[in-house]
Amino acid sequence: MLQTADITTQDGAVVRAKNRAGTERAIYLAARDLLAEQGFQGFGINAVARRAGCDKQLIYRYYGGLDGLIEAIGADLGTWVQDRIPEDTGGAFLLTYGDLMERLAILFMEALRDDPLVCKIVAWEVSKDTPQVRRLAEARTKALSKWLDRMRGTLAPPKGVDAATTNALLFAAIQHLVLSATVSGQFAGISLRAEKDWDKVAAAVRRLVRAIYG
């Protein structure tokens, strides 16, 4: 007989698990919230079990332990941009490679700003070289890469443009601005506190993308 687990997520929602699927979800949400709040320092089987209100053996049974939980979190985080653009409507709005990259860049920025765990993972990627961080980073990168390949279809960047390097620089800049906002609220004298500040950043990103990709 499966145990029932009640947990309260960061948004205040109470999740009651009455079956295997519900219990797995409760464990996952508990692990995700715990990782966002405390990082890997407070991330352990016992801590997750306490947060989920279940026996720790269920974590091993359903996820194979912490490694399985980390992989599940990483794979799920890889869909936060995909979830914002339904693939079956992409062709109606994305007419050029520039359209695609402009939209993806803005949504990437919004996703980072809205998700504290994603921000932490991005920060960990450049500051911590551990197996756990690599798993999260690889799962997220793989999911985003697959999504981009599906959305791109026959769209191609202009000839002579190194899209891989250009996009890496673009997304690195976005990541750095979002992380700077969480630490100091500014970067290089540019305020990153109010929505009007981010409107300016978004406008600048659009201009850069259009200047490169047309």
Automatic annotation (TrEMBL):
Keyword DNA-binding listed: yes
Gene3D superfamilies xref list: Tetracycline Repressor, domain 2
InterPro entries named in the record: Homeodomain-like_sf, HTH-type_TetR-like_transc_reg, HTH_TetR, Tet_transcr_reg_TetR-rel_C_sf
Domain HTH tetR-type: 21-81
One term of GO molecular function: DNA-binding transcription factor activity
DNA-binding region(s), chain positions: 44-63
This protein's UniProt keywords: DNA-binding, Transcription, Transcription regulation
Listed name of the protein: TetR/AcrR family transcriptional regulator
Organism: Rhizobium deserti
